[in-house]
Amino acid sequence: MSLLQLPEIKADARLGAAGFDLRPDALERWAPQVRAAGTDEEATISIYDAIGETWDGSGVTVKRIQAALRSVGGRDVTVNVNSPGGNFFEGVAIYNALREHKAKVTVKVLGLAASAASVIAMAGDEILMGQGSFLMIHNAWAVAIGNRHDLMEAAAKLEPFDDAMAQVYAARTGMTPTQAAALMDKETWIGADQAVEDGFATGVLDGAAVIQAPQSSVERRALAQVEAAMARAGYSRTSRRDTFKALFSGKPSAATTSTPCAGDDVAALLQTTLSTLRG
Questions:
Q1: Domains annotated on the chain, with CATH
Q2: Residue 81, beta-bridge partner list
Q3: pLDDT per position as a tens digit, 174-219
């Protein structure tokens, strides 16, 4: 980065004792149709999905961000964010990749930067919040299964991740790591104006900078909600992906392009499945 010296987060995925999955509250408040009104495609990176690879090969991964940064080269880059979070290790890796970019990084939080996405947002030299947008910060949240010894081990392994995130939020805002950790303990939602006041952001975007994309993109949230519910029910990542692949012959968007009402049918199926899992 050219303007700030932010700490590196060291988190080796091989140390993970649990599966990092999306938080239900973040999914409920995520509006996936929120997008930037206009972009310079050659110098813009869009993070409009869950962090980490999803069942259908979508999702935002560090490999995709690194490829985009190579394409940008040594130029200033804008990163548009509207994400409910997701895989902690992928989020950390993306944060580190952005903080190492040699030119200016401008992060625009258009709708939501929750969980791992809030860590990514901290990599900006400049962080701009859209009207009605939110950051959500919390302790590392994972799905762990096992006996009490397994759960105690998982909790112990999560602690250094929390410490690392608190260090980043503290470096960004000027507060102490203890103060940042207290906000994480409370699972804090931070609106645009408050983010600027507290130092999590440097400014607010004009309302014209944000648009609503076609409603069919809401299918992404329904898919994510079902997968998160399956994770909490104890289904492994492989099992979840196999289930989705059995339901769909291709990506959900393919159905939307073939038949006008197909997208509605897919959304209805997913919502029914989600209600069953919740029950």
A1: 13-212 (3.90.226.10), 215-278 (no CATH)
A2: 47, 109
A3: 999 999 999 999 999 999 999 999 999 999 999 889 998 765 455 6
